[in-house]
Structure formats: C-alpha cells, structure tokens
Amino acid sequence: MDDYRGVSFWFDMLGQDVRARPSLPGPIEVDVAILGAGYTGLWTAYYLKTLAPSLSVAVLEAETAGFGASGRNGGWLKGSMAGEDMYLSSQPAERRETGYRLLHGIVDQVRAVLEREHIECGFKQGGVLFAAARYPEQLPLVRAHLDRLRRAGHAEDDYRWLDAGELNQQVRMHRPYGAIFSPHCAVVSPGELVRGLAQAVERRGVSIYERTRVDAIQGKTVLTARGAVRAQWIVPALEGYGGSIHGLAGTVLPVQSQIIATEPLSEAQWDEVGLASRPAFSDGGRLITYGQRSADGRLIFGARGGYRFGARPRDDFSLEGPESALRKRLMVELFPALSGVRVTHGWGGTMGMARRFAPHAVCDRRSGIATAGGYGGGGVGASNLFGRTLADLILERETELTRMPWVFSDVSPRRALRRWEPEPFPWLAYRAVQAAYVWEESLCRSVDASPWLKVVAGRISAALSRLLT
Ligand SMILES: Cc1cc2nc3c(=O)[nH]c(=O)nc-3n(C[C@H](O)[C@H](O)[C@H](O)COP(=O)(O)OP(=O)(O)OC[C@H]3O[C@@H](n4cnc5c(N)ncnc54)[C@H](O)[C@@H]3O)c2cc1C
C-alpha cells in the first residue's frame, strides 16, 4: 500500500496522501525501542522524551503511524477504562480515589498536550450519553450500572441519570427510556490525533521507522528484515497485533469493530438528530452501538464486533457488502430521520482484549520489556494514562501512576498476564455470546415476544458474560 488514505474515513479526511515514513536503514542501537506507532507507542515516546530529552528512542512500525486501531476508532476519548472497578474496588479508599482521579484526569491531560503541540484533531469535550435504554428490559440493567458507579464512589457530577425527556433534549433517538451522562469524555478525529502525535514525537527527537515489521524479540534485540535494533528497553505497543511475538502470544486477543460515516448532514438534519454539543453516545444493548458527531458534521456510527478463528487481526473492510449495510440499518433504526442519508465510508479495525477484560501495564526490569494494552474498545484515552505510566516505569520514577493496581512491576508479561484459552474456545465463546446477544436484542425489539422468553434471553446473555470474566 503506497497511499494509506483508504484505511478509514479519518485517514481520508486528512486531505492529503497518507504515505509511510522511511524504513529502518539498517542495524541501530538505542536506549528504548518501541514496537508499534499507535497511541500507546507514541504516548510512551512522547512522555519519555519530555521527562528525559537525552534518551534515544526509536519507534518501529509495520505499516504507518495509526494503521492499527488508533487510526480507525470511534474517537471517544474517555476518562475511564474497562475493568477499573475490578482493579480499584478492593483498594484502600485513598488509592481508589487516586485511581478514579487519574482516570477522570485523562481528558485534561490530552487536551493540554494538544494545545502545547498545536495538534488540531476536532477535540470537543461534550461528555458522553451512554447505555441509552431503548427497551423497557434494558432500563433496570442501566439503572443497576449507575448504582454500581455510585457505590464505587463516583459523584452525581461524574455520572448522572437522564430521563427520556432530558435525553431527548440532547439526542433524538427512537423511543429512548433514559441514559447515563458523564462529562468525562471528549470526541476527537482519531487520524488527526495519531498523525499529529507522531509529528510531535519526531519534533522531540524520536525516530519513527515505518514499513518496518518486527519479527521477534531476542533478549535485548529486536529483529526485523531491515536490520536488528539493540535497546536497553523494548516496549511492545502492539495491542491486537502482538500474537506473533513470543512471550506476548495469547495475552491480548484481536477482536474487530466496524464503523460507517454518513455524508455531512444539513443543519435541518442535525436538528432532527440533536448532538448539538457533540457528546459521544451509545445505546444500552450488549452488542455495543456507539457514535459521535464529527467535527465536519457527519454521523459516525459503529456497532458490533467480529472475531476471526485463530486470533488473526483483520485490516480489510469496505463500504460495500453486508457489514456496512447492517450498520446503516442499525443507524436508521436509532435515528429514523436519517433513512435517506448517504453513507460515504465504511471501515473497521482490530482492537485488543485482555483475558481480564481490563488493560495492564507490565514492566520487567530484568529482561528490559515494558508493555501496555488490552484496552478493548477504550484505548483512545487510556493509552495516554498507560503511556505516562510506562515512561515513569522505564525511568524508574515512583509516582502515583506506577502504584496503581493495573501495574505489574518486576515480572514478565508471561507471568503477569492471564492467557486466553487455546482455540476453539475463544471462537466458540465468541459465537455463543454473539448469538445470545442478537437473540436477546431481537426479542426486546419484538412487541409480540413473550415476556418470560425475554427474561430467559437476558439471563442467558448475562450468564455467558459472567462465565467469560
Ligand atoms: C473500530 C474501532 C473503534 C474503536 N472505538 C474506540 C473509541 O471510540 N474509544 C476508545 O477509547 N477506543 C476505541 N477503540 C479502541 C482503540 O482504538 C484502541 O484501544 C487503541 O487505538 C489502541 O492503541 P494501540 O497503540 O495500543 O494499538 P494500535 O493502534 O492497534 O497500534 C498497534 C500498531 O502496531 C503496528 N504493528 C502490528 N504488528 C507489528 C509488528 N510486528 N511490528 C511493528 N509494528 C506492528 C500496527 O500497524 C499498529 O499501528 C476502537 C477500536 C476499533 C478497532
């Protein structure tokens, strides 16, 4: 691929050819070698060079910066992460409060860097309207979720209930019953963020070598077809693509999500949809339907995942075909006013799911490996927190970041991380869960379905979700 514009709408909107930087010219030696130029790799490089400008840092990227999930995602930059309660609920109150403060602070941290580095990426902190209940059966689940957030110590200002009327003032979904609002979220144009970040780290003296695929790590050496890189520290930041690297295989499972973008909507159409302050939004279904109003006035709409047998990442998606058509159908169900609107882009990407369903940072001083990932659908913001954390760990700075329970120090990734079961378990589990969720949703949607069948479907879905965690 010479021009990467086709990777996603976000790359297409960059308005220029998206070309790769030069590859590794031959063997080199650096203090830190980072594998992967997505957000995790680039934030780590950014904070390393900010804290220790004399450090030599090289980023090795198989394709081009943002080719992975970082250039393809839905652009929700959240001040929260999957599994935060799992990590924090058992911690003493002070540490728990620090954890939530660090998570909520992500949006401000990113905003500060965007301003300092003059990165224009359509950043808008309109908060998030999430888990919007669309069927009566979803209401108790969403309310229970809000109760859990309250019990975890979040205040009314962090997460609050919007009834149907309040929700309707912000977004006009088809027959909503209510949703949760949180201010701890911004939306961004992911392509501009990742490409801007790559330029910012280069200005700080980081070398980014593209079209330089890492084949293996051997001790303190990274092997590529273009030469070996010797480094004191090696930072795999590969998320859903780490499966081929020895020691990381099986720790982060590649799963897919897919998105469409409409043509720019008219003011009249936006009046019918709402989202005037550009909050991110999602519905309360288990299949995860999410979106945002882009800076250039399109509806960006993502839904549902995918998983390929053998844990293979996937990069080839297209506007044509049933996958994008399904997302358009779901979009029109949610926003009937958009039935005649043209969909101009359809794409997808591979994210990474840790076996704990929560992200991690692992630092093994002995082998010189530091890695982070496993964000699921929540790495746009969390990668900033984990990039700062990896930089502190590598520089041996003891900070509140390095004391968080998601940090595993002085242990190898192999020992710190739970591994996914071998095939066919992940494939069968994915199929079963997907089928249960689709069945549950179709029953909720049907006015004729018997109430007890809806209860059974809900219980099966919940049981399958619990079984996996
Ligand atoms: C469709 C979709 C929608 C999403 N929506 C959201 C959202 O709205 N909000 C949110 O918070 N999160 C979202 N996510 C998740 C989020 O995008 C990711 O968590 C985040 O981008 C992960 O960043 P990363 O740098 O860790 O990984 P990646 O961005 O995947 O970067 C890994 C990089 O490694 C490179 N690479 C692969 N193999 C090699 C190799 N052997 N050698 C060298 N380089 C290699 C890849 O090319 C890639 O550039 C979404 C993900 C997808 C796919």
Automatic annotation (TrEMBL):
UniProt keyword Oxidoreductase present: yes
Presence of keyword Transport: no
Domain of life the protein comes from: Bacteria
Pfam families: DAO
Domain FAD dependent oxidoreductase: 31-393
Keyword entries, A-Z: Oxidoreductase
GO molecular-function terms, A-Z: oxidoreductase activity
Enzyme nomenclature, EC number: 1.-.-.-
Protein name per its UniProtKB record: NAD(P)/FAD-dependent oxidoreductase
